[in-house]
Design brief:
The structure holds two protein chains of two kinds.
Chain A: H1 2-6, H2 11-34, E1 38-40, E2 43-45, H3 52-60, H4 63-80, H5 90-107, H6 114-143, H7 153-188, H8 192-195, H9 209-212, H10 215-244, H11 247-253, H12 257-295
Antiparallel strand pairs in A: 1-2
Helix pairs in contact in A: 2-4, 3-4, 3-5, 3-7, 4-5, 5-6, 5-10, 6-7, 6-10, 10-12
Chain B: H1 2-11, H2 14-26, H3 38-50, H4 58-74, H5 79-102, H6 108-133, H7 136-145, H8 150-180, H9 192-204, H10 206-226, H11 229-234, H12 236-242, H13 250-272
Helix pairs in contact in B: 2-8, 3-6, 4-6, 4-13, 5-6, 7-8, 8-10
Classes of the chains: A mainly alpha, B mainly alpha.
């Protein structure tokens, strides 16, 4: 509740934060898409996204709208416009990025505190990357029959993912996350807010860790993480199976694929419903707070 | 061969990219797909982006890829997107092969990757064909009618419209940085000094960019709110009025009928002559 009071926004300010974050992150994502990447075997040395943009906006403004805006911008600019739309698979990235950036925004209590900013940037990118690594590993784990039977296979998968995780953390997390955030947040703080017609957030708000690590948030994170995993399995069911064994596939051959499709649609519907619920609840809460204030 | 690449790269200037994106975004040209009902097109493209994952018959996949290729050609998808698609497919391909080899597979894994590549191609081509020819306003109306939150559907049309402006602004900021700044004197090994210099500029350019975009965002949102955007979102009557323009007509039914007949033919051929 404190968060809502502290960074309380009017209807149009919410919209502004959302649009700003969407436009900026979408643009940056497009730039990283065009930038060439250097690959050495399976390990890719490239900037996967300019993490500092959503991080800065989540720190300075209401983290929920900034995080949602960034994820939406990514889908619209980088995926729809560039013809790289992958259907249900988009859901995974959407949820991972939103959760990561939202939590990063919640961690920072004082936007001028460098330690907090560093931690937030690392946690934000780290959560995104860990979720995607876990999804990838689990995908292979479930996808391959007799996974443990192949000598060295589990180790090499985990090793590959670990290497790519470290690589992402160094490039996206530190070079394009922590460092630009530390440079730009103090410069933007107090300057960008008036342009949107708001007061800068206060420097010291006594919010404790327990304030936002509530069971509600934890369940949402877990549920969304789980849903994103399922979504990803549905979208890339074939990726693992095609490689290793065709026995498993036979089960899907005789018209059973409709089970998969319908399961995917159900999941999609559920997620849309949940997101809508969360949205309307949040709005209601904030509106009641606003009206209460006005009465007082 | 070298010449072809030089030609290709000379076309890959920022200016050209901007023009191509503008073409994608504004999509005013009359193409086969642009007159169709956007709702139908979205459902149609959802079908073709989901179904390939569940098909394991090479004949059907190749048939679908050809169908999508023809449709993408008719929708006049921009060459830039095609080049990016090819690069993406190749890099995915090499990645998967490497993983397969690395994990003790043999070259049979190579064959196993081909269906996956075709699937990715079908999906990309169909979504490109649809989104190139769809007017952003129509697209956002269609999303709204599916019950997608108004913020998202507005974001879509805003993104499409604003993107060329944003890119231009970003480019001019980068150019002014370069005018006032100094390139590193030495190249360094593998041009690393240049790379670092450009990456630094591309990050720092976001500082003025953020402030400018904030200003512009405020203008946009205020203009929207004056017209009652957030409130019309919750008002069913206003929504109904806005979505009245969406109608299925004869042309739409013809399109659906023709493409489904072709798809059924492809599936039947695939059943009898599986590769």
């Amino acid at each position: 509740m404190k968060l809502n009071v502290e960074r309380k926004l009017t209807q149009s300010q919410k919209m502004m934060v959302f649009v700003l974050s969407m436009a900026l992150f979408g643009l940056s994502k497009m730039i990283t898409e065009i930038l060439p990447s250097n690959e050495i075997g399976p390990i890719e040395f490239s900037v996967s996204y300019f993490a500092f943009i959503p991080l800065i906006l989540c720190v300075l403004f209401h983290p929920l709208y900034a995080a949602l805006g960034a994820s939406v911008g990514k889908i619209i600019f980088a995926d729809l416009l560039m013809g790289d739309f992958s259907g249900i698979g988009e859901l995974e990235g959407f949820i991972q990025l939103t959760v990561g950036m939202y939590v990063a925004g919640l961690i920072v209590k004082n936007p001028l505190n460098k330690v907090q900013l560093t931690i937030a940037a690392l946690v934000g990118v780290g959560m995104d990357q860990i979720l995607s690594s876990v999804v990838d590993i689990t995908k292979v784990w479930i996808g391959i029959e007799g996974f443990d039977a192949v000598p060295g296979l589990p180790e090499s998968i985990v090793l590959l993912e670990a290497v790519s995780f470290v690589n992402e953390m160094v490039i996206t997390g530190v070079l394009f996350g922590v460092i630009p955030t530390l440079i730009l947040v103090p410069r933007l703080y107090g300057k960008i807010e008036p342009l949107l017609g708001m007061k800068p957030r206060e420097k010291r708000v006594n919010a404790s860790m327990a304030e936002f690590v509530k069971p509600g948030l934890i369940t949402i994170v877990i549920v969304l993480g789980f849903v994103s995993m399922i979504a990803e399995f549905m979208a890339e069911l074939d990726l693992n199976f095609a490689f290793w064994t065709s026995d498993f596939l036979l089960q899907f051959e005789n018209g059973y694929e409709w089970i998969g499709i319908s399961a995917g649609l159900i999941v999609l519907g559920l997620v849309l419903y949940i997101v809508k619920k969360i949205f309307s609840n949040k709005q209601q809460v904030e509106e009641t707070i606003e009206s209460n204030k006005r009465v007082l | 061969m070298l010449n072809v690449f030089q030609k290709l790269f000379s076309k890959l200037s920022v200016e050209n990219i901007k023009i191509e994106l503008m073409r994608t975004a504004y999509g005013t040209e009359e193409t086969v797909l642009s007159r169709l009902d956007p709702r139908m097109l979205i459902v149609w493209s959802l079908f073709f982006t989901t179904v390939p994952w569940f098909i394991h018959n090479m004949t059907i996949l190749i048939g679908l890829a050809v169908l999508m290729g023809v449709l993408a050609y008719m929708a006049r998808v921009s060459p830039l997107l095609i080049v990016l698609l090819i690069i993406g497919v190749i890099s995915q391909f090499t990645y998967l092969i490497f993983v397969a080899l690395f994990l003790g597979g043999t070259f049979t894994a190579l064959l196993a990757v081909i269906p996956l590549t075709i699937k990715i191609m079908i999906i990309s081509l169909s979504s490109m064909a649809v989104f190139t020819s769809m007017d952003p306003e129509k697209f956002s109306d269609a999303l709204l009618s599916f019950g997608v939150p108004g913020k998202f559907s507005f974001g879509v049309s805003y993104g499409y419209r604003m993107l060329p402006i944003l890119i231009e602004e970003y480019q001019s900021i980068i150019q002014s940085f370069r005018l006032r700044g100094k390139m590193p004197a030495k190249k360094g090994i593998l041009y690393w000094r240049y790379i670092v210099y450009f990456l630094k500029i591309s990050v720092l350019a976001f500082y003025p960019m953020m402030l400018n975009t904030a200003k512009r965002t405020r203008t946009t949102v205020e203009a929207l709110e004056i017209r009652g955007f957030s409130y019309s979102e919750e008002n069913d009557l206003a929504k109904k009025l806005k979505l009245k323009a969406l109608k299925m007509n004869k042309y739409d039914y013809q399109f659906v009928a023709i493409t489904s007949v072709i798809t059924i033919c492809i599936i039947n051929i695939g059943m009898f002559y599986p590769l």
